[in-house]
Amino acid sequence: MAKGPTPGHGPLAGVRVVELAGIGPGPFAAMLLADLGADVVRVDRPGGAGLGIDPAHDLTNRNKRSVVLDLKGDEGPARVLDLVERADILVEGYRPGVAERLGVGPDACLARNPKLVYGRMTGWGQDGPLADRAGHDIAYIALTGTLSMIGGPDEPPTVPANLVGDYAGGSLYLVVGVLAALQHARAHGEGQVVDAAIVDGAAHLATMIHGMLAAGSWQDRRGANLLDGGCPFYGTYATSDGGHMAVGPLEGRFYAEFARLLGIADAFPDRWDLARWDELRAAVTERFLTRTRAEWTEEFAGTDACVAPVLSLTEAPHHPHLAARSTFVEHGGRTQPAPAPRFSATPVSVRTGPALPGADTEAVATDWDVPGLRPTPRD
After folding, report:
1. Which pLDDT value is given to residue 379?
2. pLDDT category, 4, cuts 50, 70, 90?
């Protein structure tokens, strides 16, 4: 069923966004804008993206609307420019030069709408030796040094799904960028291009680590530092039933409570005795293996020992704290993360399910006053 914009939901209500359909970080960035209340119109291509899940289950297309346009056809680019004329933000994730060849690059769009914020989401960026090369999350975080920090000291780097590159280093930086540029456009009447490269964002995420490296308090190798699993009281431990507990009592008073509850306080009173870290790790490992995950969860419940069970994706929504905060919500029969962050005056919500390709053409044509979106009647 076609749907219209939902006014008054979220701080970006009234902001219009054109999303040129892609995969990965671009759609997630547009979803975040939609979650915050923007009217996001996704321009899908005939036949779909070629990679991805069933559109009916693609939660990154929630809170959006969809039209289908063939950007390689005679009318497709013109219709996109009609939308651009009425938009505040455009998001695209093509390789450099592709949007230009299609006739919807920055020059064409800004000529039509000088206040437009043109957001470009790529892995390598718009320039540089690798700009035209294919790639995915794992390659981007590999070159920035970020991947080298994740995993055990005697193992290959651990792949952190596509969260660190695509979404943290990519989507979130694109959203920050386009919102900053939107503020500038509204204050000065001047649009601009936002070049959000995953390599830039993934590198930027490690700013604190680079500072520690320069200060000599971080070793440039895995599993040898305070926050990368090298510290015995900052890591994960297996339980007797095959589960895991996450441990992180860095501060003295928190460690004291952790050690007392685990039953090792007398044996290891000084957590900074580095010569005994291997011995401490072995003792913590042995203790956690004596009980189940549920038993250790109950033992540490209500304490400041900074210990938590490692939950699966399907378990997480049922945790009492997350349930109390409605961190996960159900919409259309699908359990999914709720929009974040939260706002006191302009609350956000999951308003609609995934936008099906082309389902909203008539509504968008009316709401955005772009009659050319409507199919031409046949005789």
Report:
1. 42
2. low
319 in catalytic set: no
Which listed residue (166, 200, 228, 360) is catalytic?
A: 166
Cα separation values, 270 from 118, 149, 247, 280, 307, Å: 55, 27, 17, 10, 19
Among residues 15, 128, 52, 147, which one has the least CA distance to residue 354? 52
The active-site residue, picked from 136, 204, 244, 319, is 136
The CA distance from 303 to 259, in Å, is 12
Biggest distance spanned by C-alpha atoms of the chain:
89
Q: Residue 269 — very low, low, confident or very high, per pLDDT cuts 50/70/90?
A: confident
Give the chain's mean pLDDT. Answer: 94
pLDDT at site 193 = 98
Q: Is 136 tagged catalytic?
A: yes
CB contact set of 307 (below 8 Å; sequence gap of 6+): 245, 246, 247, 248, 249, 258, 261, 296, 300
CA–CA distance, 214 with 156 (Å, rounded to integer): 25
Per DSSP bridges, beta strands 328-331 and 307-309 are: unpaired
Secondary element (H or E) of residue 308:
strand 307-309
329 strand-pairing partners: 336
49: pLDDT strictly greater than 80: no
Q: Write down the number of H helices and E strands in the chain.
A: 13, 11
Task: State yes or no: pLDDT of 8 exceeds 70.
Answer: no
DSSP string across 69-96: --TTSSSHHHHHHHHHHT-SEEEE-PPT
Tokens of residue 91, six digits: 């998001």
Closest CA to 59 of 314, 312, 355: 355
